Write the structure tokens for this entry.
Amino acid sequence: MKVLILETAAQAVARATGFVVTMVQQKPDAVLGLATGGTMLPLYDCLRARHLAEGVSFAGVSTFNLDEYIGLSPDHPCSYHHYMQKALFDHIDIDPARTHLPHGDSADPTAEAARYEALIAATGGIDLQLLGIGQNGHIGFNEPTSSLASRTRLKTLTEDTRRANQRYFDSFDDTPRYALTMGVATILESKSCLLLATGSAKADAVAAMVEGPVAAICPASALQLHRNVTVVLDQEAAAGLKLRTYYHHVHPKGDESAIG
Ligand code: PGA
């Protein structure tokens, strides 16, 4: 794992945005895996700004989001379909036909999950998967004890996750109980992964992911098994890492190292 620690959240977001921009510039038909949540909003703002200011183009890019709530139609204001439209897709030159999210309102979630997996494979696999991390160590909606071999499927959300996401809904009771999510193994099949975490609330989960054992209790720890993972952190999210000094030494100010 490449651990890049930036001083501030804004710097971490700008650094992570740079990886996405480099990917689409080097491979205009790149397949991006996208994430939602509060952490990603400033990153999508940065992508929009770079599209506007520098003409960074997404015209040939395909996208696959990690997850969607069960029971919400794409036009529901709290759906991740809606989130992606408002946060990114409406503001860049992406072809809507090439943007994909699982359909949470499918009558047959198992069939929908299989369709989604097959579509990712048919598109050639994901070149760069963007990830956030939950305070409980989830990636996508792979909650603690998710199989590390899991594929896209229906997952029951933990109460902690529902509480964390309650702010987007009218009440806790209105917060969805289930989601369709890429599995841990689906994520590990991506050619590269970029995880962004900012803020002190993520410090314990980040420490467990990077320095803890590979264990289903912290699904993000499975990323230790991937050959090409970059973790971009601000100081607060990095605060629980024992080898912080080492990461700073290898990647001063979050820069690339010539050595690794
Ligand atoms: P957040 O969510 O960015 O809203 O904290 C991250 C996640 O749960 O993966």
